[in-house]
């Protein structure tokens, strides 16, 4: 599943087409939405929130969520039928195997930007307050909660927990305040490192824990388990990542 930084790359690529003020001239695809509503609409903005890619119009917002296996093409097509295709005078956007929804109202009315780990409006104090509302939650689950860390995914989760030396099955309410704040800060910091490395095509070269076999700190095998209620893959070191329970 693409994480927040990958959606920022997608957004920036579409922004480069300068579609603001441009009309949609043709719409097709097998998405179960009112496609006619999109026809001849002018784009007012291109935005992203966490893992959501947004095409904004005057009174509503088109939301694209790539889910686990979604893809997109700009000015080209795959052989398969797109979930949604938007065609402009000089550009074309095609989305595949994704969730497509029309949201009533503007993006600002639908989204709280302070929860987006890559937004300029991100508020770490608010994230801390939300975490304190869930003291019994596992750390591995907390970092995947989109209403707290919008844009954080399994790569970010694993890398942040390793860098802050927190075991994935640590209980939020038992983690020392300073370590919890470090986890929040590192989530945002790593997201921008992720973005930089992804653009350089070097992301996997920087992984310390995710998909790795040996702990770079302890030089012993990392454990791999499906942890927490989310049952997503966790890579961790029992020696240097403390389990707060």
TrEMBL record:
Q: Which domain of life is it from?
A: Bacteria
Q: Which GO terms describe its molecular function?
A: damaged DNA binding; DNA-(apurinic or apyrimidinic site) endonuclease activity; lyase activity; oxidized purine nucleobase lesion DNA N-glycosylase activity; zinc ion binding
What's in the keyword line of the UniProt record?
Answer: DNA damage, DNA repair, DNA-binding, Endonuclease, Glycosidase, Hydrolase, Lyase, Metal-binding, Multifunctional enzyme, Nuclease, Zinc, Zinc-finger
Question: Which segments constitute the FPG-type domain?
Answer: 208-242
Which reaction equation describes what this protein catalyses?
Hydrolysis of DNA containing ring-opened 7-methylguanine residues, releasing 2,6-diamino-4-hydroxy-5-(N-methyl)formamidopyrimidine
**Formamidopyrimidine-DNA glycosylase catalytic domain sequence ranges:** 2-95
Picking any one GO biological process from the record gives: base-excision repair
Question: Which InterPro entries does this UniProt record tie to the protein?
Answer: FPG_cat, FPG_N, H2TH_FPG, Ribosomal_uS13-like_H2TH, Znf_DNA_glyclase/AP_lyase
Q: Which Pfam families match?
A: Fapy_DNA_glyco
Family under the similarity heading: Belongs to the FPG family.
Q: What is this protein called?
A: Endonuclease
Q: Which organism is it from?
A: Taibaiella lutea
């Amino acid at each position: 599943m693409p994480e927040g930084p990958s959606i920022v790359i997608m957004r920036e690529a579409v922004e480069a087409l300068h579609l603001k003020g441009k009309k949609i001239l043709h719409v097709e695809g097998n998405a179960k939405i009112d496609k006619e509503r999109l026809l001849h609409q002018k784009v007012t903005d291109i935005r992203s929130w966490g893992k959501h890619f947004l095409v904004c119009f005057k009174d509503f917002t088109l939301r694209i969520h790539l889910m686990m296996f979604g893809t997109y093409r700009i000015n080209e097509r795959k052989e398969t039928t797109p979930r949604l295709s938007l065609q402009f005078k000089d550009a074309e956007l095609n989305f595949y195997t994704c969730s497509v929804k029309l949201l009533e109202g503007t993006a600002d009315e639908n989204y709280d930007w302070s929860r987006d780990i890559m937004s300029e409006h991100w508020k770490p104090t608010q994230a801390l307050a939300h975490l304190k509302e869930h003291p019994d939650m596992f750390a591995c689950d907390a970092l995947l909660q989109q209403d707290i860390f919008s844009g954080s995914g399994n790569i970010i989760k694993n890398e942040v927990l390793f860098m802050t030396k927190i075991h994935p099955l640590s209980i939020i309410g038992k983690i020392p305040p300073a370590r919890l704040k470090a986890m929040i800060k590192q989530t945002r910091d790593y997201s921008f490192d992720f973005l930089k490395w992804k653009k350089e095509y070097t992301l996997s070269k920087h992984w310390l824990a995710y998909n790795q076999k040996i702990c770079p700190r302890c030089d012993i095998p990392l454990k791999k388990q499906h942890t927490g209620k989310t049952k997503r893959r966790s890579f961790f070191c029992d020696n240097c990542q403390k389990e707060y329970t």
